[in-house]
Amino acid sequence: MMTRTQIYLPEETHANLINLAKIENVSLSELIRKGADLVIKTKQKGMSPHRQTLKMLADYPESLRVKLSDSAINLIRKQRD
Predict the structure, then answer these.
(1) pTM (2 decimals)?
(2) Which of 8, 21, 64, 65 has the most Cβ atoms closer than 10 angstroms to its Cβ?
């Protein structure tokens, strides 16, 4: 699933992206998505493994999440502390 968004780009940046998309034979949208993914991966490399795990869990799809019982939450907190 994707979310529609709108961004403003300088004219030169927009023109360069269009040219690059033509060279790579992809749509402008696909090129921007790939670029965004690259930025995210680059930034995450600087994160500790603990932070990367928390980020992964925070980004986990809502439809696949499960609700933990209060007893499970308390057990996790007890082990953590």
Answers:
(1) 0.55
(2) 21
